[in-house]
Amino acid sequence: MSGTTTNTVTVSAPDVLQITPLENAPFGARIILPAYAQDPADLNEDDFQRLYKAVHEYLVVVLPDLAELKPSSQYQLTKRFDPTCEGAYGHSKEFRHEKSVLRRDGHSTPAQPQVQILGQGRHDGHAGVPDLLLRHPTHMSFHHDPLSDDDMANGYTRFYRWHIDSALYGLAPPVVTTLLGIDCPVDKSQKIRYEDTGEEITTAKATTAFASGAIAFDNLSDEDKEFALNTTVVYAPHPYIFISPAKATSDGLTMVSEGKELPLDELPEWEQSKVKRLPLVWTNPVSGKHHMQVHGCCIWKLETPNGTLELEEARNTIHRLMRPNISPDRIYCHDWNQGDLVIFFNRGVWHSVTGQFEEGGHRLMHQCNIASAVDPVCKK
Protein backbone atom coordinates (compact mmCIF):
# COMPACT_ATOMS: atom_id res chain seq x y z
CA MET A 1 0.00 0.00 0.00
CA SER A 2 1.42 3.31 -0.98
CA GLY A 3 0.33 6.90 -0.41
CA THR A 4 1.43 10.50 -0.24
CA THR A 5 1.82 12.82 2.70
CA THR A 6 0.85 16.46 2.40
CA ASN A 7 2.59 18.90 4.68
CA THR A 8 0.23 21.67 5.82
CA VAL A 9 1.83 24.98 6.64
CA THR A 10 0.05 26.86 9.39
CA VAL A 11 0.61 30.59 9.53
CA SER A 12 0.17 31.85 13.04
CA ALA A 13 -1.23 35.24 13.85
CA PRO A 14 1.37 37.86 14.81
CA ASP A 15 2.04 38.92 18.37
CA VAL A 16 1.43 42.59 17.53
CA LEU A 17 -0.68 44.36 14.96
CA GLN A 18 0.86 44.14 11.48
CA ILE A 19 0.63 46.88 8.81
CA THR A 20 1.38 46.31 5.11
CA PRO A 21 0.97 49.09 2.52
CA LEU A 22 -1.42 48.21 -0.31
CA GLU A 23 0.24 47.30 -3.58
CA ASN A 24 -0.50 49.30 -6.73
CA ALA A 25 -2.47 51.91 -4.82
CA PRO A 26 -1.60 55.56 -4.11
CA PHE A 27 -2.44 55.11 -0.42
CA GLY A 28 -3.93 52.54 1.96
CA ALA A 29 -2.75 49.57 4.04
CA ARG A 30 -3.79 46.07 5.07
CA ILE A 31 -3.94 45.27 8.79
CA ILE A 32 -3.51 41.85 10.41
CA LEU A 33 -4.73 41.67 13.99
CA PRO A 34 -2.55 40.16 16.72
CA ALA A 35 -3.35 36.66 17.97
CA TYR A 36 -4.92 37.86 21.22
CA ALA A 37 -7.48 40.15 19.50
CA GLN A 38 -9.87 38.35 17.16
CA ASP A 39 -12.16 41.31 17.81
CA PRO A 40 -10.45 44.66 17.01
CA ALA A 41 -12.35 46.28 19.88
CA ASP A 42 -10.13 44.17 22.17
CA LEU A 43 -6.82 45.67 21.02
CA ASN A 44 -4.54 46.69 23.85
CA GLU A 45 -3.47 50.31 24.01
CA ASP A 46 -0.14 49.82 22.24
CA ASP A 47 -1.71 48.01 19.29
CA PHE A 48 -4.61 50.43 19.11
CA GLN A 49 -2.11 53.28 18.88
CA ARG A 50 -0.44 51.47 15.98
CA LEU A 51 -3.83 51.22 14.30
CA TYR A 52 -4.65 54.87 15.09
CA LYS A 53 -1.37 56.02 13.54
CA ALA A 54 -1.86 53.77 10.48
CA VAL A 55 -5.32 55.17 9.79
CA HIS A 56 -3.99 58.73 9.91
CA GLU A 57 -0.93 57.97 7.77
CA TYR A 58 -2.34 55.48 5.23
CA LEU A 59 -5.86 57.05 5.30
CA VAL A 60 -7.68 53.81 4.42
CA VAL A 61 -6.93 50.50 6.14
CA VAL A 62 -8.44 47.06 5.50
CA LEU A 63 -8.87 44.40 8.19
CA PRO A 64 -9.96 41.06 6.61
CA ASP A 65 -12.11 38.19 7.88
CA LEU A 66 -14.37 40.06 10.30
CA ALA A 67 -17.83 39.25 8.89
CA GLU A 68 -19.06 38.21 12.36
CA LEU A 69 -18.04 41.48 14.04
CA LYS A 70 -20.83 42.58 16.37
CA PRO A 71 -22.37 46.07 15.98
CA SER A 72 -21.42 46.80 19.60
CA SER A 73 -17.75 46.06 18.83
CA GLN A 74 -17.83 48.16 15.66
CA TYR A 75 -19.28 51.06 17.64
CA GLN A 76 -16.72 50.75 20.45
CA LEU A 77 -13.84 50.58 17.98
CA THR A 78 -15.11 53.59 16.02
CA LYS A 79 -15.65 55.64 19.16
CA ARG A 80 -12.15 54.85 20.43
CA PHE A 81 -10.61 56.95 17.63
CA ASP A 82 -12.09 60.15 19.09
CA PRO A 83 -12.19 60.61 22.88
CA THR A 84 -14.27 63.78 22.42
CA CYS A 85 -17.24 62.13 20.74
CA GLU A 86 -20.39 61.58 22.72
CA GLY A 87 -21.86 58.76 20.70
CA ALA A 88 -24.27 60.50 18.29
CA TYR A 89 -24.43 59.06 14.77
CA GLY A 90 -22.52 61.38 12.44
CA HIS A 91 -25.62 62.51 10.51
CA SER A 92 -28.02 62.75 13.47
CA LYS A 93 -31.78 62.37 12.94
CA GLU A 94 -31.72 64.44 9.76
CA PHE A 95 -30.47 61.29 8.02
CA ARG A 96 -34.13 60.13 7.99
CA HIS A 97 -35.86 63.42 7.13
CA GLU A 98 -38.44 62.88 4.39
CA LYS A 99 -36.76 65.43 2.10
CA SER A 100 -33.14 64.44 2.78
CA VAL A 101 -31.17 62.94 -0.11
CA LEU A 102 -29.85 60.40 2.44
CA ARG A 103 -33.20 59.18 3.71
CA ARG A 104 -33.21 55.79 1.92
CA ASP A 105 -29.52 54.97 2.27
CA GLY A 106 -29.62 52.83 5.39
CA HIS A 107 -31.37 51.45 8.47
CA SER A 108 -30.18 51.66 12.08
CA THR A 109 -29.41 48.48 14.00
CA PRO A 110 -31.89 48.42 16.92
CA ALA A 111 -29.32 47.35 19.52
CA GLN A 112 -26.65 49.83 18.40
CA PRO A 113 -28.31 52.71 16.54
CA GLN A 114 -24.99 54.38 15.65
CA VAL A 115 -24.35 51.41 13.33
CA GLN A 116 -26.22 51.65 10.03
CA ILE A 117 -27.23 48.69 7.87
CA LEU A 118 -26.45 49.37 4.20
CA GLY A 119 -26.73 47.29 1.06
CA GLN A 120 -29.15 46.02 -1.51
CA GLY A 121 -32.16 43.73 -1.52
CA ARG A 122 -34.23 41.96 1.13
CA HIS A 123 -32.58 40.67 4.31
CA ASP A 124 -35.42 39.56 6.57
CA GLY A 125 -34.58 39.47 10.26
CA HIS A 126 -31.03 40.80 10.03
CA ALA A 127 -29.94 42.39 13.33
CA GLY A 128 -33.48 41.93 14.57
CA VAL A 129 -35.04 44.06 11.83
CA PRO A 130 -38.09 42.39 10.24
CA ASP A 131 -38.79 42.82 6.55
CA LEU A 132 -35.52 44.69 5.91
CA LEU A 133 -35.35 46.02 2.36
CA LEU A 134 -32.17 47.88 1.42
CA ARG A 135 -31.43 50.11 -1.57
CA HIS A 136 -27.94 50.71 -2.90
CA PRO A 137 -27.72 54.41 -3.84
CA THR A 138 -27.06 54.97 -7.53
CA HIS A 139 -26.41 57.95 -9.76
CA MET A 140 -29.64 57.46 -11.75
CA SER A 141 -31.77 59.42 -9.30
CA PHE A 142 -29.09 61.92 -8.25
CA HIS A 143 -27.19 63.03 -11.35
CA HIS A 144 -28.46 65.72 -13.70
CA ASP A 145 -27.70 63.65 -16.80
CA PRO A 146 -27.55 59.95 -15.88
CA LEU A 147 -26.10 57.28 -18.11
CA SER A 148 -28.29 55.86 -20.85
CA ASP A 149 -29.87 52.44 -20.55
CA ASP A 150 -27.50 51.24 -23.28
CA ASP A 151 -24.44 52.46 -21.36
CA MET A 152 -25.57 50.68 -18.20
CA ALA A 153 -26.39 47.52 -20.16
CA ASN A 154 -22.82 47.64 -21.45
CA GLY A 155 -21.45 47.68 -17.90
CA TYR A 156 -20.88 51.38 -17.28
CA THR A 157 -21.50 53.12 -13.97
CA ARG A 158 -20.58 56.37 -12.21
CA PHE A 159 -19.11 57.77 -9.04
CA TYR A 160 -22.34 58.50 -7.17
CA ARG A 161 -21.35 61.35 -4.82
CA TRP A 162 -17.87 62.25 -3.59
CA HIS A 163 -18.29 63.25 0.03
CA ILE A 164 -17.13 63.37 3.62
CA ASP A 165 -19.32 61.62 6.20
CA SER A 166 -20.81 64.48 8.21
CA ALA A 167 -24.10 66.17 9.02
CA LEU A 168 -22.40 69.50 8.13
CA TYR A 169 -24.93 71.28 10.32
CA GLY A 170 -24.69 71.51 14.10
CA LEU A 171 -22.37 68.51 14.51
CA ALA A 172 -18.62 68.28 13.90
CA PRO A 173 -17.38 65.80 11.26
CA PRO A 174 -16.52 62.29 12.51
CA VAL A 175 -12.83 61.42 12.74
CA VAL A 176 -13.19 57.97 11.19
CA THR A 177 -15.79 55.82 9.50
CA THR A 178 -15.80 52.03 9.81
CA LEU A 179 -17.44 50.03 7.03
CA LEU A 180 -17.94 46.26 7.32
CA GLY A 181 -18.68 43.98 4.37
CA ILE A 182 -20.89 41.16 5.65
CA ASP A 183 -22.25 39.75 2.40
CA CYS A 184 -20.60 41.19 -0.72
CA PRO A 185 -21.23 39.00 -3.75
CA VAL A 186 -19.34 40.11 -6.85
CA ASP A 187 -20.43 38.48 -10.10
CA LYS A 188 -19.15 40.97 -12.64
CA SER A 189 -17.07 44.10 -13.13
CA GLN A 190 -18.24 47.59 -14.04
CA LYS A 191 -16.58 50.45 -15.89
CA ILE A 192 -16.38 54.15 -15.01
CA ARG A 193 -15.81 56.56 -17.87
CA TYR A 194 -14.42 60.04 -17.24
CA GLU A 195 -16.59 62.02 -19.58
CA ASP A 196 -14.28 65.05 -19.76
CA THR A 197 -11.14 63.07 -20.68
CA GLY A 198 -12.43 59.77 -22.07
CA GLU A 199 -10.38 57.77 -19.56
CA GLU A 200 -11.90 54.57 -18.18
CA ILE A 201 -11.31 52.34 -15.18
CA THR A 202 -12.67 48.85 -14.59
CA THR A 203 -13.58 47.80 -11.06
CA ALA A 204 -15.52 45.09 -9.32
CA LYS A 205 -19.21 45.86 -9.05
CA ALA A 206 -20.09 48.51 -6.45
CA THR A 207 -16.62 49.28 -5.16
CA THR A 208 -16.07 52.13 -2.73
CA ALA A 209 -13.76 54.77 -4.20
CA PHE A 210 -11.44 56.94 -2.11
CA ALA A 211 -9.49 60.12 -2.92
CA SER A 212 -6.77 61.54 -0.68
CA GLY A 213 -7.20 65.09 0.54
CA ALA A 214 -3.41 65.21 1.10
CA ILE A 215 -2.69 64.30 -2.52
CA ALA A 216 -5.30 66.87 -3.55
CA PHE A 217 -3.57 69.62 -1.58
CA ASP A 218 -0.05 68.64 -2.63
CA ASN A 219 -1.00 68.83 -6.30
CA LEU A 220 -2.41 72.34 -6.11
CA SER A 221 -0.41 75.16 -7.67
CA ASP A 222 1.32 77.49 -5.22
CA GLU A 223 -1.36 80.09 -5.92
CA ASP A 224 -4.17 77.61 -5.24
CA LYS A 225 -2.46 76.36 -2.08
CA GLU A 226 -2.38 79.92 -0.76
CA PHE A 227 -6.05 80.31 -1.71
CA ALA A 228 -7.05 77.01 -0.08
CA LEU A 229 -5.16 77.69 3.15
CA ASN A 230 -7.00 80.96 3.58
CA THR A 231 -10.52 79.94 2.51
CA THR A 232 -13.46 78.92 4.69
CA VAL A 233 -16.25 76.69 3.37
CA VAL A 234 -19.74 77.65 4.53
CA TYR A 235 -22.18 74.75 4.29
CA ALA A 236 -25.89 75.25 3.71
CA PRO A 237 -28.30 74.92 6.64
CA HIS A 238 -29.64 71.35 6.64
CA PRO A 239 -27.53 70.76 3.52
CA TYR A 240 -28.94 67.39 2.47
CA ILE A 241 -32.43 68.88 2.50
CA PHE A 242 -31.27 72.13 0.87
CA ILE A 243 -29.90 70.26 -2.17
CA SER A 244 -32.72 67.70 -2.43
CA PRO A 245 -34.46 69.25 -5.48
CA ALA A 246 -31.15 69.81 -7.32
CA LYS A 247 -29.06 67.33 -9.32
CA ALA A 248 -25.37 66.49 -9.34
CA THR A 249 -22.64 66.82 -11.93
CA SER A 250 -21.79 63.65 -13.87
CA ASP A 251 -18.62 63.07 -11.83
CA GLY A 252 -20.44 63.35 -8.49
CA LEU A 253 -18.23 66.18 -7.24
CA THR A 254 -20.82 68.93 -6.82
CA MET A 255 -24.29 70.09 -7.89
CA VAL A 256 -25.49 71.65 -11.12
CA SER A 257 -26.54 75.25 -10.42
CA GLU A 258 -30.06 75.80 -11.77
CA GLY A 259 -31.64 77.59 -8.82
CA LYS A 260 -33.51 74.45 -7.75
CA GLU A 261 -32.23 74.33 -4.16
CA LEU A 262 -34.89 74.50 -1.48
CA PRO A 263 -35.39 78.14 -0.36
CA LEU A 264 -34.04 78.82 3.12
CA ASP A 265 -37.49 79.73 4.44
CA GLU A 266 -38.78 76.30 3.37
CA LEU A 267 -36.10 74.39 5.25
CA PRO A 268 -36.76 72.94 8.70
CA GLU A 269 -36.15 75.52 11.42
CA TRP A 270 -32.45 76.35 11.56
CA GLU A 271 -30.04 78.45 13.60
CA GLN A 272 -27.22 80.59 12.26
CA SER A 273 -24.98 79.35 15.09
CA LYS A 274 -25.29 75.76 13.81
CA VAL A 275 -24.30 76.55 10.21
CA LYS A 276 -20.92 74.88 9.68
CA ARG A 277 -18.03 77.11 8.66
CA LEU A 278 -15.01 74.86 8.17
CA PRO A 279 -11.57 75.51 6.70
CA LEU A 280 -11.03 74.23 3.16
CA VAL A 281 -7.77 72.65 4.40
CA TRP A 282 -7.68 70.38 7.45
CA THR A 283 -4.37 69.53 9.13
CA ASN A 284 -3.71 65.87 9.93
CA PRO A 285 -2.92 65.69 13.68
CA VAL A 286 -0.54 62.73 13.25
CA SER A 287 1.31 63.36 9.97
CA GLY A 288 1.04 67.16 10.05
CA LYS A 289 0.05 67.09 6.38
CA HIS A 290 -2.54 69.43 4.92
CA HIS A 291 -5.64 67.78 3.43
CA MET A 292 -8.04 69.62 1.14
CA GLN A 293 -11.31 68.42 2.65
CA VAL A 294 -14.63 69.60 1.26
CA HIS A 295 -18.07 68.16 0.56
CA GLY A 296 -18.64 69.71 -2.84
CA CYS A 297 -22.34 68.85 -3.07
CA CYS A 298 -23.25 70.59 0.19
CA ILE A 299 -21.30 73.84 -0.05
CA TRP A 300 -23.18 77.13 0.13
CA LYS A 301 -20.49 79.80 0.03
CA LEU A 302 -16.74 80.25 0.10
CA GLU A 303 -15.22 82.98 2.26
CA THR A 304 -11.94 83.82 0.53
CA PRO A 305 -9.21 86.43 1.11
CA ASN A 306 -10.78 88.43 -1.73
CA GLY A 307 -14.39 88.21 -0.64
CA THR A 308 -17.29 85.78 -0.55
CA LEU A 309 -18.08 83.51 -3.50
CA GLU A 310 -21.79 82.73 -3.69
CA LEU A 311 -23.29 79.36 -4.57
CA GLU A 312 -22.62 78.90 -8.29
CA GLU A 313 -19.16 80.46 -8.27
CA ALA A 314 -18.29 78.54 -5.10
CA ARG A 315 -19.30 75.27 -6.76
CA ASN A 316 -17.33 76.04 -9.91
CA THR A 317 -14.24 76.87 -7.88
CA ILE A 318 -14.44 73.74 -5.73
CA HIS A 319 -15.04 71.57 -8.78
CA ARG A 320 -11.91 72.97 -10.44
CA LEU A 321 -9.84 72.22 -7.34
CA MET A 322 -11.27 68.75 -6.72
CA ARG A 323 -11.53 67.28 -10.22
CA PRO A 324 -7.84 66.37 -10.86
CA ASN A 325 -7.78 64.27 -7.71
CA ILE A 326 -10.35 61.70 -8.78
CA SER A 327 -8.23 60.79 -11.81
CA PRO A 328 -7.51 57.04 -12.15
CA ASP A 329 -3.94 57.21 -10.81
CA ARG A 330 -4.91 59.18 -7.70
CA ILE A 331 -7.78 57.11 -6.30
CA TYR A 332 -8.10 53.79 -4.50
CA CYS A 333 -11.16 51.67 -5.31
CA HIS A 334 -11.81 49.03 -2.68
CA ASP A 335 -13.17 45.80 -4.14
CA TRP A 336 -15.17 44.25 -1.33
CA ASN A 337 -14.58 40.76 0.04
CA GLN A 338 -16.82 39.20 2.64
CA GLY A 339 -15.50 40.14 6.07
CA ASP A 340 -13.54 43.23 5.08
CA LEU A 341 -13.59 45.93 7.74
CA VAL A 342 -12.44 49.19 6.18
CA ILE A 343 -11.49 52.04 8.49
CA PHE A 344 -10.90 55.37 6.83
CA PHE A 345 -9.73 58.74 8.10
CA ASN A 346 -12.87 60.73 7.38
CA ARG A 347 -10.96 63.97 7.92
CA GLY A 348 -8.37 63.02 5.31
CA VAL A 349 -10.19 61.38 2.39
CA TRP A 350 -13.26 61.84 0.25
CA HIS A 351 -15.16 58.73 -0.85
CA SER A 352 -17.91 57.68 -3.21
CA VAL A 353 -20.26 54.79 -3.78
CA THR A 354 -20.12 53.31 -7.27
CA GLY A 355 -22.19 50.84 -9.24
CA GLN A 356 -25.71 49.56 -9.49
CA PHE A 357 -27.33 46.18 -8.91
CA GLU A 358 -29.71 44.24 -11.12
CA GLU A 359 -33.19 43.27 -9.96
CA GLY A 360 -32.78 40.69 -7.21
CA GLY A 361 -29.19 41.68 -6.43
CA HIS A 362 -28.14 41.76 -2.81
CA ARG A 363 -25.40 43.06 -0.53
CA LEU A 364 -25.17 43.63 3.24
CA MET A 365 -22.84 46.00 5.11
CA HIS A 366 -22.57 47.79 8.45
CA GLN A 367 -21.35 51.39 8.68
CA CYS A 368 -20.49 53.48 11.72
CA ASN A 369 -19.30 57.03 12.20
CA ILE A 370 -19.76 59.22 15.25
CA ALA A 371 -19.97 63.00 15.36
CA SER A 372 -16.99 64.62 17.03
CA ALA A 373 -17.21 67.35 19.65
CA VAL A 374 -14.39 69.32 17.98
CA ASP A 375 -14.20 70.70 14.43
CA PRO A 376 -11.11 70.08 12.28
CA VAL A 377 -8.58 72.91 12.06
CA CYS A 378 -6.01 74.24 9.63
CA LYS A 379 -2.59 74.81 11.17
CA LYS A 380 -0.79 77.06 8.70
TrEMBL record:
Keywords: Dioxygenase, Iron, Metal-binding, Oxidoreductase. Residues 19-368 form the TauD/TfdA-like domain. InterPro entries: TauD-like_sf, TauD/TfdA-like, TfdA_dioxygenase. Its cofactor is Fe(2+). Pfam families: TauD (PF02668). One of its GO terms (molecular function) is metal ion binding. PANTHER family: ALPHA-KETOGLUTARATE-DEPENDENT XANTHINE DIOXYGENASE XAN1 (PTHR43779:SF2), DIOXYGENASE RV0097-RELATED (PTHR43779). Belongs to the TfdA dioxygenase family. This is TauD/TfdA-like domain-containing protein. It comes from Lipomyces starkeyi NRRL Y-11557.
